[in-house]
Design brief:
The complex is a heterodimer. Chain A is mainly α. Chain A contains 15 helices and two strands. A two-stranded antiparallel ribbon of chain A has the order 1-2. The chains are: A mainly alpha, B mainly alpha.
């Protein structure tokens, strides 16, 4: 009787989460299994009946495929640049907001706008109004100081630079928000104590504040890395991966393989490998930064 | 002794002057940053009300006679069909995910559920997997099921974007509500459903508002899944926007592009400015 009652209780409790788990099973787990299965097949959209099992050949092909290794390299460099850029700028912006002034909350609100804006609009807007070679704002400003700017999004390596800057513009607010919130949580007495010790502002930042926020900083870096690997919208409309393959991030590579070349099995093997790579990167950072204690503690 | 005092006084005065000028510099930097962050939105706003001939003039004309021709142009391009799709996809996608996610978050926060940590880890992981990993197999499954080009399919997929976020954030909000609140209701013999509905839900309004805004923004802005799955008939505004890029033959339709962009961005930017506190709380809280 008691056991039955207990079972009944557990079942009523799980009613709260069962629908969610079923839904996630259908939209996440099943597609993932489907992707793994298809990655071992030669699966082309034009020959749906002719898909055949080819073992790990897709994965072997990835490592010999210049377009894939190129995309991987580009993604890693892109991630390194934009994560560093957004972390530094976002942290500095958050520092500027710590001492209250008139209109500080309005400034906070307006500073979050880039992150909220629709990514397709950002990509297209920057393409036609900012980076446009003849009518764009950047080249007009460069013209004012007598520099003739490049044809940004259609010229190597400027397309990559333009894409990275656009991305930094888009994602700096996220870092700012997180850092702003965690800086505000640092108790005043810690700040005061270091002030009495005669530490300068930057000494306080580097030796007291940053070590205190280490955990948040590492979490933010992880979040930023996953967002970069996820990045598709802005690149897809800003450069389309071009010129050549100079801005073809992994997401765009997978998209092109699947929906342009119709190699669905092969595209999925690339996507899954990409997932493994992120997991490895994030795992390493977590281990190095959080579990092992990192360099300074 | 007196001399020493004087120099101290001068030093502290100098420090004050220095502090003040640093403060001014700080505020100027913030204003500059705000300008950089906000001006693309202003630019789109202005451009969408400019005559096509005025749009490309440099230096940009700040003062101009506003016109509605660009909006007329996008209405001719079926703007309302896309708008309708956007509204249907967003409202259905968000409400479906809320209906599933809020109870799940409550369960994971307050009830003893088997494999709780495993489930939480699974949900957290989903937030970090690139969407393209899911998008391609979902496309393949949809082709098999004949769901490509249907709204219902896209709505269903938007669970993937929203549910992990909603569950994770709402769990954090529920965690902050003390369990003692439910004690009185428990004494009265309320069951877990009543406790959820009458005690926890009313006490987590701020959390719900926060989560609702975030998932609205993400769903409204969604592009990748809509691009792949919405076929011809279910396309939302984000996918419709790319038609104005034209090709080499037509060139960019600047005015229409701006008006469409403005209509797309305006709702999310306005909402985010009005409820910015919730929004920031959501993004910062998504971290912990």
């Amino acid at each position: 009787m008691n056991i039955i009652n207990k079972c009944k209780k557990t079942i009523t409790k799980t009613i709260f989460i069962i629908p969610s788990l079923i839904a996630l099973g259908a939209v996440a787990v099943y597609p993932l299994i489907y992707a793994i299965r298809s990655s071992f097949h030669d699966w082309n959209l034009h020959r749906p009946d002719a898909s055949r099992f080819i073992g790990i050949n897709n994965y072997i092909r990835l490592f010999n495929d210049f377009t894939f290794t190129n995309s991987l390299t580009i993604t890693l460099i892109y991630t390194l640049i934009t994560v560093t850029g957004t972390m530094v700028l976002g942290f500095l912006l958050a520092l500027l907001l710590q001492k209250p002034f008139k209109g500080v909350n309005l400034a906070r609100a307006l500073l979050t706008v880039p992150m909220i804006m629709t990514q397709v609009v950002i990509g297209l807007g920057f393409r036609v109004f900012i980076w446009e070679p003849d009518y764009g704002l950047v080249n007009w400003l460069l013209d004012l100081i007598n520099i003739s700017g490049p044809a940004w999004v259609s010229q190597i390596p400027y397309a990559f630079i333009a894409a990275a800057i656009t991305h930094i513009w888009f994602m700096t607010p996220l870092v700012m928000i997180i850092m702003d919130a965690s800086l505000a949580n640092i108790p005043d007495n810690i700040q005061d104590a270091t002030k009495i010790d005669g530490a300068s502002y930057w000494q306080r930042i580097f030796y007291v504040i940053i070590p205190m926020l280490k955990k948040t900083i590492i979490f933010t870096i992880l979040l930023r890395i996953t967002i970069d690997f996820r990045m598709f919208d802005i690149i897809h409309v800003l450069t389309g991966g071009g010129p050549g393959r100079s801005t073809q991030l992994l997401s765009v590579w997978v998209y092109n393989q699947a929906l342009r070349a119709h190699n669905l099995g092969y595209a999925n093997s690339g996507a899954l490998l990409m997932m493994v790579i992120i997991a490895l990167i994030c795992g390493t950072i977590t281990y190095w930064g959080l579990l092992k204690g990192g360099p300074e503690s | 002794m007196k001399n020493n005092n004087d120099s101290n006084l001068i030093r502290s005065k100098l420090k004050k002057i220095k502090d003040k000028s640093i403060d001014k510099l700080r505020i100027l930097t913030v204003i500059f940053a705000v300008f950089i962050a906000f001006f693309p939105f202003l630019w789109i706003l202005m451009t969408s009300f400019k005559l096509p001939g005025e749009i490309q003039s440099l230096p940009p004309s700040i003062i101009f006679r506003p016109t509605l021709v660009n909006f007329q142009a996008i209405i001719d391009e079926n703007f309302f069909k896309y708008l309708r799709n956007s509204i249907i996809l967003t409202t259905s996608g968000v409400s479906l995910s809320m209906l599933l996610g809020v109870p799940a978050a409550y369960g994971l926060s307050k009830l003893k559920i088997p494999f709780k940590n495993g489930i939480l880890f699974f949900i957290l992981t989903l937030r970090f997997v690139p969407y393209i990993v899911f998008a391609i197999p979902i496309f393949m499954i949809f082709v098999e099921l004949g769901l490509v080009g249907t709204r219902i399919g896209v709505i269903f997929v938007y669970i993937l974007i929203n549910l992990p976020l909603i569950t994770w954030l709402m769990k954090n909000f529920f965690d902050e509500i003390p369990e003692e609140l439910a004690d009185a209701a428990k004494v009265d013999g309320a069951n877990i459903f009543q406790i959820f509905y009458k005690v926890y839900l009313p006490n987590s309004k701020a959390g719900i508002a926060c989560v609702l805004i975030l998932s609205f923004v993400f769903t409204w802005n969604e592009y990748l899944f809509a691009l792949i799955l919405s076929g011809r008939d279910a396309q939302p505004l984000t996918v419709g926007l790319t038609q104005f890029l034209g090709g080499i033959e037509y060139g960019v339709q600047w005015g229409a592009l701006s008006a469409w962009s403005f209509s797309l961005v305006f709702p999310v930017v306005t909402i985010s400015l009005f409820v910015n506190k919730y929004l920031r709380k959501g993004f910062a809280g998504g971290m912990s």
